[in-house]
Amino acid sequence: MADTTTIDPRNGFNSTTKTFHSLRPPAPLPPPSQPLSITDYTLSLLQSNPTSSPNTDFLIDSTTGHRLSYSDFIRQTHSLTASLATILPPHGNNQVALIISPTSFHIPVLYFSLLALGITISPVNPVSTKSELTDLIRISNPVIAFATSAVSSKLPSSFPLGTIIIDSPEFVSMLQNSSSDVIHRKVNQSDTAAILYSSGTTGRIKGVELTHRNFIAITSNSHYNRFVRDEKASPEPQSVWLFPLPLFHVFGFFMIIRATSFGATLVLMEKFEFNNALKAVEKYKVTYMPVSPPLVVAMAKSDLVPKYDLSSIRMIACGGAPLGKEVAKSFSVRFPQVDIVQGFGMTETGGAVTGMSNPDECEHYGSAGRLSCNVEAKIVDPETSEALSPMQQGELWLRGPMIMKGYVGDKEATAAAMDTEGWLKTGDLCYFDYDGFLFVVDRLKELIKYKAYQVPPAELERYLQSIPEVVDAAVIPYPDEDAGQIPMAYVVRKPGSKISEAQIMEIIAKQVSPYKKIRKVAFINAIPKTPAGKILRRELVKHALSGASSKL
């Protein structure tokens, strides 16, 4: 335990250990030795919530309006658990279930059922190709697969326990198992709950191994340190959530658990489309939206927004990638009643490990908030490994009970990412300010090396996105004989805009140091991104180097 006398109460920095500590009240955690699955933990939080009701809608299909109540969700979960228990007997080692499906009502039920049985879930992107699936299957080694009929043909037929088709009558009957017995299996908190896949934006894809304890810790953080709009009032419930997040990604996966613990209503979108999202907000009186930065940009700039009544929205949680200060400000001008809660998290942390807890903290535009409870951090000089003080930039290191077990079957990658004291090296260039707010500058590996200078692409992207005629932008390194690399921008113009390469370069040049100037611009229809909103820079670099005039 840190000596509290050496911790700065303003920012949590311990000048002796050079470690940043959370300023939040600690969240209670069950003893690590207590057998407990994330399913049982989440449902216990739900049942202890005085505002939750079995008749509350848990899921709403944004397209059809079909609804599933909490009582039906819990009944289906118990039924499916009983059905799957006959197929998946208790096993000494963790058994893995591969799940490949678009967003649907069945997926949360399937997740909670498998996790209750101690089965490790491994959800994958339903648009994955056969070759991509081969790599993912090699990493996770699943014994069974769950897939929709539309994508099952992409799977091999070699799973020991076969493949169950989620949209089949047989699966529906498993949800309606008449067995009155509730299945209880001993699940240790140290058991692996999920294998989720890193985005692969900076190298080969890796399977991130997260335990039930990891998810219990991250859920406890969010449950017991909720956003408070008025300090004299109780935390405001985010009762109706629009849910455009893919459920196979860590952001969507964790948010399903978080929403369930709160007893919130989720309006699910199988496929995100901006106009349909605005319709859903108006129709279902959505109060809360977990989103990635591109959606915030669209809401701040789109001409479609004034056509809908979006007055019900009270909060937006933005994660997955940094949100520019200028974009956040322009959003707040358009939506003064909405708090933008920004945070930082990774697949390797199971969810957000920084965030904002009140409207005053939301005013720190451009930051990712303060450390969540039970989290420690360091800012480390990548060259000297020296731990740094507030306002000094370096690699962000994190430690806490939510940090992953490691990368499945990849000891080398695990050793490179985690040291012997449990610190996770994030690969992100960051700093904490004097008030303990985290600022993400860029990915260390994505810094552009212009002559002797380092240029962060994310900084230039924020300036580009502040230009009214720019819908979206990405900055990449472009090889240059004299400079080594120069910043090159890919820009999506607003429909009808004629803004030129020279105009864009001139606008940016007035806002940055000479070495950060954008020196090449290409126009594009859309910026390629991961489901979490992270820019796929490697695709843009490949496109730029090919000299192709074709559109991505």
UniProtKB/TrEMBL annotation:
Keywords: Ligase, Phenylpropanoid metabolism. GO terms for molecular function: CoA-ligase activity. PROSITE patterns: AMP_BINDING. InterPro entries: AMP-bd_C, AMP-bd_C_sf, AMP-binding_CS, AMP-dep_synth/lig_dom, ANL_N_sf. Residues 1-34 are annotated as: Disordered. Residues 25-34 have a biased composition (Pro residues). It holds the Pfam family AMP-binding. SUPFAM superfamilies: Acetyl-CoA synthetase-like (SSF56801). One of its GO terms (biological process) is phenylpropanoid metabolic process. It comes from the Eukaryota. Pathway: Phytoalexin biosynthesis; 3,4',5-trihydroxystilbene biosynthesis; 3,4',5-trihydroxystilbene from trans-4-coumarate: step 1/2. Residues 49-407 form the AMP-dependent synthetase/ligase domain. Residues 1-20 have a biased composition (Polar residues). The keyword Ligase applies. Residues 459-534 form the AMP-binding enzyme C-terminal domain. Belongs to the ATP-dependent AMP-binding enzyme family. This is AMP-dependent synthetase/ligase, AMP-binding enzyme domain-containing protein. It comes from Helianthus annuus (Common sunflower). The lineage of its organism: Eukaryota, Viridiplantae, Streptophyta, Embryophyta, Tracheophyta.
